[in-house]
Amino acid sequence: MLNTVNATASAAKYLKRAVRSRCMELSLQAFPELKLFITGPTYLSERVKRAALLPEFGHRDSENERRLRVVLKNLGEIMQLPGNCRVMLLPGTGSTAMEASIRSLVRDDERVLCVSVGAFGDLYANIARRNKPNVDIIRFPDGSAIDESRLAAGLEEKEYAAVTITHNETSTGVINRVGRLGKIVRDHGALPLIDGVSILGGASGEIKEGQSATYVGSTQKCLALPAGFGIAAVSDDALEKAEQVEKRGLTTDLLLHAEKAGKFQTLTTPNTALVNQLYVQTEYIVKDEGVETRFARHRRLRDITLQWLAGLPEGFSLFPGKENSSPSLTCIRVPESLDRKALKEKMREQGYLFDPGYGKISTPTIRIGHMGDITEEMLKEYLETLGEAFS
Ligand SMILES: *Cc1c(COP(=O)(O)O)cnc(C)c1O
Question: Phi and psi dihedrals of 239, rounded to 5?
Fold first, then answer.
């Protein structure tokens, strides 16, 4: 058993020491503190920063299990996992988990369909093409959501083993109805592979309704942690399918990851500071804030942003349709004349990191990241400052 009194005393000492070193003092002076309102990585709360100071540990030791047993259970609650799915942590990032889904679940003699509404849907298609020979893409214009009948028509044309879908398209602020889309994919006998990277922890992944084969995320978006893990929920039938796929790679083999997750471990060495942070943060989300409360807060942050947008002068408008606007970020069409680079520097002077829009979209846009642990007060302050910076 841990001696709590000693543990508390040593934690306090640890925190003091951490800020007292000379290198730390100099580094604190060197790097300005910016409040991140970009779309990931996100602002880190004091709670998360301090969690990185918890004791390091060995990843094949019992101390690892004491943490990961809780983390995986909490992630299951946050992802509202149905009984036929299990969750695993892949050292790497969201892209690692996306690549693992393709490598593990599609044979070389099968086809993948990648449905894209923007840059991150294109990323999934790019990953698929780099790993598998037969990849088709349905690309909807930037700003639109996936059209269900167009998807169904695509699935009628050819036989597909798997279909990649972006839940929340971060380049355009569009959220897709993955519950309904996944069902359409399943009705055509294919596996839905869902990229939920910029929404996991901020809204329901609709994994049960969409019968997702894989639903992947990462730590540095709505979970408000530093980057360092891909998170994957994988269904039992997906794991069965993986057994028929040759050459799944090593770090991209979901069967190997599943085996380790079954022992509350990771396949390769995890970032142990991040495991400590995941422990504290997922405990906070599940037991203190509450999963549904967190989702509701994300919806409120969107509503606050849309209300603010309605008061802006002509030339500023919501880029996606209102019904498809994401609860984790808002993408805004801005006048051509707006100097977004200068605006970014102006906001930096105010202590903020501003997002001047995704580089490759032809329409001039800006994005407001309102994901993770950002509070209503923080967002209102930010929007007020930004509104002033426009003029
Ligand atoms: C950020 C992002 C990714 C890439 O995730 P990494 O963790 O950087 O690999 C993929 N898809 C979406 C929708 C994203 O927002």
Answer: -65, -35
What is the pLDDT confidence band of residue 19, given thresholds at 50, 70 and 90?
low
What's at 137, amino acid-wise?
I
What single-letter DSSP state applies at residue 301?
Answer: H
Nearest CA to ligand 1 atom 12: 197
pLDDT over 50 at 1, yes or no: no
Report DSSP state, residue 199: T
Which atom of ligand 1 is nearest to 169's Cα? Answer: 13
Residue type, 105: L
Atom 15 (ligand 1) nearest CA = 198
Structure token digits, residue 196:
């939920």
Nearest CA-CA partner of 117 in 150, 144, 155 = 144
What is the average pLDDT across 314-339?
96
Q: Per-residue confidence at 18, pLDDT binned at 50, 70, 90?
A: low
Is residue 174 a contact partner of residue 194, using CB atoms and an 8 Å limit?
Answer: no
Contact criterion met (CB below 8 Å) for 244 and 107: yes
Are residues 61 and 270 in contact, defined by beta-carbon separation less than 8 angstroms? no
Residue count of the chain: 391
Give backbone dihedrals phi and psi of 99, rounded to 5 degrees, phi first: -65, -40
Cα torsion 156, 159, 161, 162: sign? negative
> Number of helices (H) and strands (E), helices first, in the chain?
14, 14
Ligand 1 neighbours (beta carbon < 6 A): 40, 93-95, 120, 123, 166, 168, 170, 195, 197-198, 218, 227
Instruction: Report the separation in Å between the CA atom of 77 and the middle of ligand 1, taken as the mean of its atom positions.
Output: 22
Q: Which atom of ligand 1 lies nearest, measured to the CA of 220?
A: 7
Contact in structure between 59 and 52 (CB atoms under 8 Å): no
Tokens representing 83? 């009984």
Q: For residue range 253-264, what is the model confidence (pLDDT) as tens digits?
A: 999 999 999 999
Paired sense of beta strands 135-139 and 112-116, if any: parallel
SS3 292: helix
Q: Using one digit for the tens of pLDDT, what is the confidence trace for 351-380?
A: 999 999 998 888 999 999 999 999 999 999
